[in-house]
Design brief:
InterPro entries: NRAMP_fam. By secondary structure, this protein is mainly alpha-helical. It contains 15 helices and no strands. About 50% of the residues are buried.
């Protein structure tokens, strides 16, 4: 038994990083808010989204483990136009994703630690500098090992928090409480956000693929195909489970209380911590505070690493004659450039951050079914031996997922144009 556990710990890698990256605002904010506003019924769209999107992320691990090539190389092999599609999504991420994540994390840190005398921009700069240093010095191996600790702390903190709220029981509803409608305009828009970002955006499949490449490079004993998929499945299951934990916290502490929840992610996170401790007791503050900050810190670290890797990989495939993109030093430089770009975005566009995030959301939602189809095309290509291609059941789930994402994207576009 102990030997099996040690073997599992050694195999942990891309699946853990995926879980760490995915457990961000989609969990801390959207899952919690889903439970707070609509109750336990929100577990249905959470589970549904995780099931329907599973193949697209799994294909990143499957393709890389078999071919020892990144999924981005798979796009290039399909044709340069496929690579340009993915490059478009990456460009939007470069100028929006990290800025949004670091803003939320910085604000959360300031609220939780009651930091005063400094502004959000300086706190974000300190976080950019700290995380960039960790990534440059430690590289993939440090990221993997450190996240084993962070995710363990996060899981224990969330498990304890969830058990405590279940033991305490549901908060007493206000008089004449009426359950909000799910299928009105507000409810539909919330469902779109929840399912669109649960567990994360589909383009992250390319990130998982690059982490799988690094795992293969850094491992003395290369994980087998079965082991690689098993490790990813464990990380994916943990991602879905923690989303349900956050849902339970929101449902048991806020549902029916009539509390007005902020649309601002930083303020909302602070509300959750404050209201939770009011419901359970101040002694429990540390558990939810640690869970909230560990959630966002680990997401910042993995997303920063992923965007740096994917940017370099896309550029090296688009412009193979420019050798600078393949140098070892390029990763460190890219990490720093991304930090500076996104810090400038925070300073210059903090008042319009919502619009930038809306742009990123729009591009991500619209491109999701296209990226999903590209992933299927890659794993069904000629460089994938027949025995390693997805079986009929997984192919069927993939097509259902693509239809779901397409309808999702069309409805989202319609809502945006209508607005």
């Amino acid at each position: 038994m102990i030997k099996k556990i040690k073997q599992l710990i050694k195999l942990v890698g891309p699946g853990l990083l995926f879980a760490s990256m995915a457990i961000g605002t989609s969990h801390l904010v959207l899952s919690t808010k889903g439970g707070a506003q609509y109750g336990w019924v929100m577990v249905i769209p959470i589970v549904l989204a995780n099931i329907l999107k599973y193949p697209f992320f799994e294909f990143g691990v499957r393709y890389t483990n078999v071919t020892h090539k990144s999924l981005i190389q798979g796009y290039r092999d399909l044709g340069k136009r496929y690579l340009w599609v993915y490059a478009l999504v990456t460009v939007v991420s470069i100028f929006t994703l990290l800025a949004a994540l670091y803003v939320v994390t910085s604000g959360l840190l300031m609220n939780l630690l009651k930091i005063s005398g400094t502004n959000l921009g300086m706190t974000a700069l300190a976080l950019f500098a700290f995380i960039s240093t960790l990534l440059i010095i430690g590289r993939y191996k440090f990221l993997e090992n450190s996240l084993k600790v962070v995710i363990s702390i996060l899981f224990v903190a969330l498990l304890v928090t969830t058990v405590m709220v279940l033991y305490k029981g549901q908060a007493a509803p206000i008089a004449n409480f009426e359950q909000p409608k799910i299928f009105d305009e507000v409810g539909i828009l919330f469902l779109i956000s929840l399912m669109g970002w649960m567990p994360t955006a589909v383009e992250a499949s390319g990130w998982v693929s690059l982490w799988s490449i690094e795992k293969l490079k850094s491992s003395k004993n290369k994980p087998s195909f079965k082991e690689a998929l098993g490790e990813f499945n464990l990380g994916y299951f943990m991602t879905a489970l923690l989303a349900i934990f956050f849902l339970i916290i929101g449902w048991m502490t806020l549902y029916g209380t009539g509390v007005e929840l902020s649309g601002n992610a930083v303020v909302f996170a602070d509300q959750v911590v404050t209201l939770f401790t009011a419901h359970i007791g101040n002694w429990a503050y540390i558990f939810i505070a640690v869970a909230a900050f560990a959630t966002m810190f680990s997401t910042c670290m993995t997303a920063h690493d992923a965007v740096a890797r994917v940017s370099l990989d896309v550029l090296s495939k688009l412009y193979p004659n420019i050798g600078i993109f393949s140098r070892k030093s390029s990763f460190a430089l890219t990490v720093v450039i991304l930090a500076l770009i996104n810090w400038m975005v925070i300073l210059l566009f903090s008042a319009n951050m919502g619009q930038l995030v809306a742009l990123a959301t729009f591009v991500s939602f619209v491109m999701a079914p296209i990226v999903g189809w590209m992933n299927l095309k890659a794993v069904m290509g000629n460089d994938m031996p027949q025995r390693y291609r997805p079986n009929k059941s997984l192919q069927f789930l993939t097509y259902v997922g693509m239809i779901f994402l397409s309808l999702f994207a069309l409805y989202y576009c319609w809502m945006v144009l209508l607005d």
